[in-house]
Amino acid sequence: MAQKYVTRAEDYSKWYNELVYRADLAEHSDVRGCMVIKPYGYAIWEKMRDILDAKFKETGHSNAYFPLFIPKSYLSKEASHIDGFAKECAVVTHYRLKNAEDGSGVIVDPDSKLEEELIVRPTSETIIWNSYKNWIQSYRDLPILINQWANVVRWEMKTRLFLRTTEFLWQEGHTAHATKQEAIAETEQMLDVYEDFAQNYMSMPVIKGRKTANERFAGADDTLCIEAMMQDGKALQAGTSHFLGQNFAKAFEVKFADKEGKLDYVWATSWGVSTRLMGALIMTHSDDEGLVLPPALAPIQVVAVPIYRTEEELTAISEKMKELSIKLKAKGISFKFDDDDNRRPGWKFAEYESKGVPVRVAMGPRDLENGKAEIARRDNKTKELVDFVGLEDYIEQLLADIQSNLLQKAMTFREENTREIDSYEEFKKEIDKGGFFLAHWDGTPETEERIKEETKATIRCIALDRKEEPGLCMVTGKPSAGRVIFAKAY
Amino acid sequence: MAQKYVTRAEDYSKWYNELVYRADLAEHSDVRGCMVIKPYGYAIWEKMRDILDAKFKETGHSNAYFPLFIPKSYLSKEASHIDGFAKECAVVTHYRLKNAEDGSGVIVDPDSKLEEELIVRPTSETIIWNSYKNWIQSYRDLPILINQWANVVRWEMKTRLFLRTTEFLWQEGHTAHATKQEAIAETEQMLDVYEDFAQNYMSMPVIKGRKTANERFAGADDTLCIEAMMQDGKALQAGTSHFLGQNFAKAFEVKFADKEGKLDYVWATSWGVSTRLMGALIMTHSDDEGLVLPPALAPIQVVAVPIYRTEEELTAISEKMKELSIKLKAKGISFKFDDDDNRRPGWKFAEYESKGVPVRVAMGPRDLENGKAEIARRDNKTKELVDFVGLEDYIEQLLADIQSNLLQKAMTFREENTREIDSYEEFKKEIDKGGFFLAHWDGTPETEERIKEETKATIRCIALDRKEEPGLCMVTGKPSAGRVIFAKAY
Q1: pLDDT score at B86
Q2: For the domain that residue A153 is a member of, what is the CATH number?
Q3: ipTM, 2 decimals?
């Protein structure tokens, strides 16, 4: 661990990039904009996926799988959808390669040109509604509550690991309903699922809100979101849930007969979170020593490092650790005993610190004699000597403490970096320092655009629980019904 | 259920296609060769995935994720790999669409042409070994034991749901080792994992064997496989495990320093199973009434249907079913109580029969009075009146019986349809009847090719446990060391 890493204060962006490599989470591939998610990073993503998947199933959803490719013409069917998504896409134009005649390798066979190009899905509304069309005839076929775990591709010019990559992994829920109210309730329910996941598993506080028309999903009547604050004060949109109205049903001619036999278009929602959550997780908690993980998402929750000189010492410590392992396992706590003889304890300490393992147990010959172990918390770096008897209960409680401490800390940070602001002059001066700014806005896209152009800040959302507070737009002085949240964002 | 379905005897192929729709497993999408896996089909695939995933982890593997796209030039790096895979591929040539000037929709932006085309992965050896190159310096970095769950694309001209689709889901293990022996042991271990899964979860007997040079994976030194027999006597390759030698290490220049500091190329394996297993599962057990599922893979293991006229009867039955539900849940048995008032019991019986639910519980007022329930097995269609007291134990045992009965039945079927054959004349007459033919072969690709051309039968494998039995090739009369398995195959 001789390598010197940059700190958050020195260069936040570089700190992030270094951390992703240092904790062995992911790396850039040679394919422009695509990442390799390494085993440790993928193990965290798997935990996220499994927890979310269970919540989707609890709320009545099933998984299914739709094609990777979307015929180009489908994207044109929903008018506003196309403006949002039919831009930077990977386009499949041919289906065969052949050997070059000069033996130089393979070339695309010109005879294999597709009649209609296929787009690698940037999101699946169109291909899915094209199927739903055949699945829905009557109210008895509704609701359809389907989720898909998949890879999607959006051709990004500027990419960052997890935060913005050309290919990423995500889940996309696509539901169909007989009534508007039911679809709106679904949109809200899934936002609540995301909030619950963010706060109680990621220990990441989020604000539930509504996007402005400008920031809405292409094809949605309403976009709800959860917004989080990163440690540099920037906002990160961590999940969205869209009420799609009847837009896709109309685009794909999906009607159903109600109980009276009357035909109407179907109501829709879609909602998703992606591997972007990995970036949010990293930037919410981690510090200059590396990753900090909430226990609920840590692939290894407890690591034990033996400190010894002789074989006998190692054997004695190993026995104790085996005991501990069994007791922790019974509690569903994941545990790793690292007795690799090729690495010194100091190296291991730094390694697991980098990787964000929440609790470290160290035991040396003297600890063994005294019936104690040294317990170190990753989150606040405190250490304590704890009796070996009952250690499993101590650790269980400690993991719960760490989980809630991380949430509390992030909550406090967000509060300290959220302020009301009424002067646009001050706003322009302050916005670069980061944080959430609660300001009055006149509700027009023009003012929103102007602020974005002049400051690069956007309206992150109109909080669902904002207080009604009549005021005057900080830019135009026109009336406003309440404050909205401005911030610079990832 | 007025619809009349074709039987296996009438038209096996049509029976299969109808069954996939009838059981609501999957359907063709409008994208040529790509399928939609519907919720019920996906639920079975999820069970397969979760069981296999646990087995991969038990044997020390971790999951990771590599890019969907492979630069065209990578495919050329391994000489025999390119012949096998750089043929029917989806080729991405552009990365942007734009609005057509005449307003007719979107067109591919000619300015967005990629310098080097990207291939949608048909398999990931090349992109993965391009990463491993950077991960491996010394023996300390080995072994690498990684698996990936992903979608892959092979442009197929003739497709069938699950069995052969342009896009399919699979897992691909890619491991790197310091020694040849270790890589071979890994290849064999993973074949054993597949065999265990096929036999003990799918109730599908398989023969472990070795592919001939002709049928080997493109880039492998040795391909091991599991071969199953479908009910029409055709063979289905259900999984493969490849010893890749140093071929990919050489193609991507991946060397490691051993303990003495000597450099050598790394040894590799890869192994995979896909959604094709769904096809194998269907064709191994199902009958003219629909899907038959082994309990270990059934999304619903037990379904209960109430038979009633009055509300009071339904209430009384529902209470009993609630009791049963709790007891079955405690045993980890999945249970559905279908009290949908819009459907009659007969309709429900047929529906769950179609879907292969292993055990059906029916209860009417008289059963209730007598403290009994009618228990129907899906596999052999027997019915029995069973005491309600202790019913959960009865069902638990029944599920185990069904699981082993299905395996036994399939095993018997395979035995009855496997025969030794010594005359090529007879072989040519018999081969169309289906089944496995054990015949002597002179070991040359020429003879293998000739048999394939003349009969469409291929050598499925050389069984790993075949007895050494010198003989004479049925075609050329040249010497042979033992019999190999011929069959027509999916």
Answers
A1: 66
A2: 3.30.930.10
A3: 0.96
CB contact under 8 A, B86 and A106: yes
Cα–Cα distance, A196 to A198 (Å, whole number): 6
Q: For residue B107, is it within any domain?
A: no
Nearest to B224, CA basis, from B241, B245, B206, B202: B241
Q: What is the pLDDT of residues A266-325, one digit of tens each?
A: 999 999 999 999 999 999 999 999 999 999 999 999 999 999 999 999 999 999 999 999
Residues of B in contact with A87 (CB under 8 A): 96-98
Write down the pTM of the prediction. 0.97
Please give the structure tokens belonging to residue A410. 């992030």
> What is the tens place of the pLDDT at every residue in A402-435?
999 999 999 999 999 999 999 999 999 999 999 9
Q: Which two tokens stand for residue A27?
A: 């790396």
Whether residue B384 is found in the same domain as residue B238: no
Provide the residue count of chain B: 490
Q: Cα angle vertex B289, ends A67, B395, to 5°?
A: 95
Residue A86 is assigned to a structural domain of this protein: no
The shortest CB-CB distance from A34 to any of B69, B99, B120 is to B69
Nearby residues of B396 by Cβ (< 8 Å), 6 or more positions away: B331, B333
User: Are B426 and B391 within one domain?
Assistant: no
Give the gap in angstroms from C-alpha B381 to the nearest C-alpha of chain A. 29
- C-beta separation of A81 from A126 below 8 A: yes
Helix (H) or strand (E) holding B238: strand B235-245
Mean pLDDT, each 10-residue run in order, chain B (490 residues): 84 97 97 96 98 98 98 85 80 93 86 96 96 97 98 94 98 98 98 98 98 94 98 98 97 96 98 98 98 98 97 96 98 97 95 98 96 97 97 98 98 98 97 97 97 98 95 97 97
B213 touches chain A (CB under 8 A): no
Residue B259 has which token pair?
Answer: 């303990």
With CA atoms as reference, report the closest residue to B69 among B121, B20, B111: B121
CB-based contact, A69 to chain B, within 8 Å: yes
Does B408 fall in a domain? no
Looking at the fold, whether A396 and A423 belong to one and the same domain comes out as: no
Query: Which of B25, B66, B70, B95 best probes binding to A when mutated, by most A CB atoms within 10 angstroms?
Result: B95
Q: Give residue-wise pLDDT tens across range B147-168.
A: 999 999 999 889 999 999 999 9
Distance from CA of A354 to the nearest CA of B (A): 18
Contacts of A75 in chain B (CB under 8 A): 97, 106
- Please state, as a whole number, how many other Cβ atoms lie within 10 Å of the Cβ of residue B413: 17
State the average pLDDT for chain B.
Answer: 96
Give the domain range for residue A196: 12-72+122-285
A247 and A331 belong to one structural domain: no
What are φ and ψ of residue B168, in 5° steps? -145, 165
**Residues A353 and A208 placed together within one structural domain of the fold:** no
Put simply, whether B30 touches A (Cβ < 8 Å) is: yes
- If asked whether residues A187 and A271 sit together in one domain, one would say yes
Sign of CA dihedral B315, B320, B324, B326: positive
Q: Which of A150, A151, A155 sits opposite B95 (nearest CB)?
A: A155
> Is B280 in the same domain as B324?
no
Write the residue in A39, A92, A96 that is nearest to B64 by C-beta. A39
Number of domains in chain B: 3
Which residues numbered 239-298 in B keep a CB inside 8 Å of some CB on A?
A: none
Note whether A399 and A432 are same-domain residues: no
